[in-house]
Specification:
The chain has one domain (2-76). By secondary structure, the chain is mostly helical. It contains three helices and no strands. α1 (2-11) crosses α2 and α1 packs across α3.
């Protein structure tokens, strides 16, 4: 449900209406998946894991965004 809701939200932006919004949505989710796959390779040698902490907070933000757009999507079809 989250990808569909994100496409609806991107479609509300004036300069992202139509095909441009669909392409932006596809690129946004592709970038998110690529970043998610690369996180284990992001901080391999740091002793205190400061970069890993930043990746952790980024992941929490992404999960919160996915959860909130899913909730909004289900809320709108009720």
């Amino acid at each position: 449900m989250s990808p569909f809701e994100m496409l609806k939200l991107l479609g509300m932006v004036k300069w992202l209406q139509g095909e441009a919004g669909e392409i932006a949505g596809i690129l946004l989710f592709t970038l998110g998946i690529a970043l998610w796959v690369l996180i284990p390779f992001y901080d391999t040698k740091k002793e205190f894991g400061q970069r890993a902490r930043a990746a952790h907070y980024f992941g929490l933000l992404a999960v919160f965004a996915l959860l909130s757009t899913t909730i909004i999507g289900y809320w709108t079809i009720r």
